[in-house]
Amino acid sequence: MNSNTSTGSTIKLNQASLSHLPGNVRVPKYDRHQITNGIVHIGVGGFHRSHQALYLDNYFHQNPGSDWGICGVGLLDSDYDRRIRDALLSQDCLYTLVEQSPQSDRARIIGSITRYLFAPDDHQAVIEAMASPECRIVTLTITESGYYYIEGSGELDVNYPTIQHDLQHPDQPIGTYGFLTAALEKRRQQGLAPFTVLSCDNIQGNGNMVQKMLTTFAQMRDSDLGRWIAEYVTFPNCMVDRITPMTTPADIKMVAEFGIDDAFPCVAEPFTQWVIEDTFCAGRPDWESVGVQMTNDVHPYEMMKIRLLNASHLLIGYLGSLAGYTYVYEVMADPLFEQAVAKLMDEVTPTLQPVPGIDLDDYKKTLIERFSNPKIRDQLPRLCLNGSAKIPKFVLGSLRDQLQLGGAIDYLSLTIAAWCRYLTSQDKQGQPIPIDDPLADILIQHASLSKLDPKPLLSISEIFGDLVESPRFVEAVADQLRSLHEFGVNGTLVRFSQAH
């Protein structure tokens, strides 16, 4: 057994072992030592590794010796971030990405992340990486809840403990805005131009959002710094899309069948899309050469994706969980659920603008096919977490537009009712479903009071704004909630299919 081999049948993944991997595994053909880190990425989870890092890996195969390598950063002192840290550091920042289609599984090793920093271990190293002259873009996948945005007012949640900590301890930040402002302040003092901040999260106007939140935070810390950021930093909006389930022990075993011992591989569907507004203050890679669509207006694309894909995911997640399913493809194998998802998308379509180069009917059919892919074992709890951040961003915009248009809101209301029911529901063993949400205690309390009358939940203005003042909306959610209690999920969907 050589030094690269951890068992008789698998090879431990690292830089030295690449040449020993089986021939059916694609490996980086470029010299990773010739790459410098022009990009710092905060939030190295599965999605970043299946999406942005993949595009850069493709780019380096065409442009060896590039200065657009990725320095990954983990901010959260969590088990998940520590597992990512331990895996990447033990594997020279390499990992396996397996693309799973109904026809086949294809494995490749991604080499575009060449450095990884764990902020809880070394705050200064993270600040220095972003303050370095070679850093020209900072990208983010910090999830919807990581922006500390109050839905009802559109303002920064200045009282959030992370925000307060970073305002009071600017040299020892723990949150994204604290690290960004510390690095930008360092650059300003050194006479360096700023970097571009590129949010890659599923938020409508994600660039506009992070611009407003970051400049607000910076101005609270230092008004001159806030003005400098507002004047010189650019914040492109972008739309990202690739279904990437959480990595499971079964995925690690599946990767071992390729002959690879990888502590934290990544699996994803074949489909991938990235649309970015072309406003970069310090240069960018030639992303067009690897299939990224650069545009002057990403809004129609992000609306399409958020309102069709992400809203459907919430309906699938909450209704599917209530019906006892585990995976998305299982839900979609039930004709009643597939019909409900298709009807939700049809309900939302009138709120969308024309999307250049996209046929919406084809896009919706593609979504149904993607959700139904049995190889993608996307677990429902992933779709259900952080509902307090997702519901406003993925559902309520369409709902408000439909109320204004006088259009149908049946399936949009059903999604809200399913969430309300989910918040107080039990699993098959009769145990309460664990609610993974920063507002879990408040949500469960209000949902418990909303057994047949949803007003207590709908009155949380941080989530629903003034929608509780719409009798039509409240009545629609109340009807669906009563139906879920009286007839269950399947009975409710049967009634819906007969009525619509």
Structure, explained:
This protein has 20 helices and 15 strands. With 500 residues, the protein is of the alpha/beta class. The radius of gyration is 23 Å and the shape is globular. Mean pLDDT is 95; it is low at 1-7.
Q: What general outline do the C-alpha atoms trace?
A: globular
Weakly predicted, low-confidence segments = 1-7
Helix content: 40-55%
Task: List how many beta strands DSSP finds.
Answer: 15
Strand fraction equals: 5-15%
Compute the gyration radius: what is it? 23 Å
Q: Output the strand order for the largest sheet.
A: 6-3-2-7-10
Report the total helices.
20
Query: End-to-end span in angstroms?
Result: 64 Å
The helix/strand class is: alpha/beta
Average pLDDT confidence is 95
The main sheet comes to: 5 strands, parallel
Give a quick rundown of the structure.
The chain is of the alpha/beta class and 500 residues long. It has helices spanning 46-50, 52-62, 79-90, 123-131, 161-168, 176-189, 206-221, 223-232, 249-256, 299-322, 328-332, 335-348, 360-371, 380-384, 387-405, 410-423, 440-448, 455-458, 461-464, 471-499, and strands at residues 11-12, 39-42, 70-74, 95-100, 105-110, 113-118, 137-140, 149-150, 155-156, 196-199, 238-241, 260-261, 266-268, 273-277, 293-295.
